[in-house]
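Weekly puzzle thread! Below is a chain. First person to post its structure in token form gets bragging rights.
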Amino acid sequence: MAGPLSHIRVLDLSRVLAAPWTGQILADLGAEVFKVERPKTGDDSRAFGPPWLKDANGRDTSESAYFACANRGKKSVTVNLSKPEGQKIVRELAARCDVLLENYKFGDLARYGLSYDELSKINPRLIYCSVTGFGHSGPWRERPGYDFMIQGMGGLMSVTGERDDLPGGGPQKAGIPISDIITGMYAAVAVCAALASRAETGAGQHLDLALLDSSVAVLANQGANFLATGKAPPRLGNAHPNIVPYQPFRTADGDVIVACGNDGQFRKFCEVAGCAPLADDPRFASNGKRVENRAELTRMLSEIMAKRPTRHWVQALESAGVPNGPINTLDQVFREPQAIARALRIELPHPAAGKVSLVRSPMRFSETPVEHGLPPPVLGQHTEEILRSVLKLGEAEIAGLRGDGVI
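Winning reply:
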């Protein structure tokens, strides 16, 4: 495969989403990724359905859409880690890989002789990336961590959701498993940085990524607001804590998001909306004043925006240079001209479904382009191929391993 990491080989021992997301990013970048799964059952997320991928006749396959979202570009090899022979296979693969990904609970892989300390003796250049709920240090290091609970524990849900004093108020999780995904992205950045360091030093290292750490890190301006004031920011629904107007408004037939990032854009917005005097009103002339007088301004603008349909506002505000956009459902997202032009939906051949539609990687390179070649694998699809080509095992040895339930 092409891609900036086409010279890198990854051993992916992870399951479900956070670390598999890391493996998929590395695969998108061209790395050869071996996904190690349990024989017969595989990655837990293979059972996370419906929905299931459909075959050419529209019938459900046994392949979940959830698994497909995080495992394109990988090769599946089934290995039973509870058997010494399975542990030996993983050690021998680790000796031939640049990166190892794992999201076992703290200390679990040491039981199989597959900890960083043990594998780094076999392969000192190995970059060993651990993804856990709470990291490899601290009093919670042995606790399991799941996206939903981490969104709550890490503060994301305290700033997400409608205000407590309004209908539907209260904490709300994101509509996607954002803690898992963000941790997977941070892990991919860390792996790439460790590869760059290894190019200079020749040495691998252990990477310790935690869902809690990553979720707190992406509090961004909300985290900074708290650290600057000592006051926990409240939930504001779809409003912005530091910018006004920066929120959706109901229109005559739907919703439109208006995002005035500065005073100039607010003035243009007021001109389009037919309320130009508001831009000079002392209560609203600067962003700081608009934040202070958020409730009154929002009431006034809501009355104006409700008079015309969404398409009118989108076209008028776009012409005036005011950032805005509709709130699309997913079917509308993939019909948008920009999404079509950027080919955000891709289609790959699939051994069980015939073909599978996926979301394209957002990474674009001028010289080492991302090429989506391999679909999400079926369970154990590449086991014999990898044992033959990488570990140089013969047919009799492979047959013996299969007969003994090792693969």
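Puzzle host: Confirmed. Bonus trivia for everyone else. The chain is about 35% helix and 15% strand.
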